[in-house]
Design a protein that fits this description.
Strand content: under 5%
Shape: elongated
Low-confidence stretches: none
Structural class: mainly alpha
């Protein structure tokens, strides 16, 4: 299908001995969709290496940093993922998901206070109910039920249908009983 066609186009460009970070970035995106994370990671790192040897045809490395961080997350390398997300935030301090992704990594690593800081920053940039829900789950871990209820309410009363909102509505009742 479409992925095979995309691969054929990429291979065609390579026949011309034409180096393009844009093409390699597209290749990495396809590999990620195919769940070939380790190969995508190597392609993305090669983009960084090659950009030091020659001028890149990418306008920005924002997407490269974002995808390398995603690969690191999926490969079980949270510290590396955080480093790449920090580099992404140096390029774009208002990136639409970077702070939330940092918060999720920190939450998984039980760095709850740091996770809350990053969820706050994410909510300032993009007040999406999913991040309210994530913040509430951190407060639940910290047994700060009043704050958990506050953020579960914000997630549960949002009109958007997103992952976490159904859980938020269910957990809201449980937390009200504990508070």
């Amino acid at each position: 299908g479409q992925i095979d066609t995309a691969y054929k186009i990429i291979e065609r460009y390579k026949q011309f001995d034409f180096e393009s970070d844009q093409i390699e970035l597209k290749r990495a995106q396809i590999l990620i969709k195919e769940d070939k994370i380790d190969i995508a990671y190597n392609v993305l790192i090669d983009i960084f290496i090659n950009s030091k040897k020659r001028e890149s045809d990418l306008e920005s490395f924002e997407e490269v940093y974002s995808l390398v961080a995603l690969c690191c997350e999926n490969l079980g390398r949270p510290n590396q993922a955080l480093r790449y997300l920090n580099k992404l935030l140096e390029i774009n301090p208002n990136h639409k998901t970077a702070y939330g992704r940092k918060g999720l990594i920190q939450k998984a690593g039980k760095q709850y206070k740091q996770a809350l800081i990053n969820f706050d920053k994410q909510i300032q940039i993009n007040p999406h109910p999913y991040f309210y829900y994530q913040k509430a789950t951190v407060y639940r871990k910290l047994k700060e039920y009043d704050k958990a209820i506050e953020y579960l309410t914000k997630a549960a009363t949002n009109e958007k249908v997103v992952p976490g909102v159904a859980d938020a509505r269910y957990n809201l009742g449980k937390d009200m009983k504990k508070a």
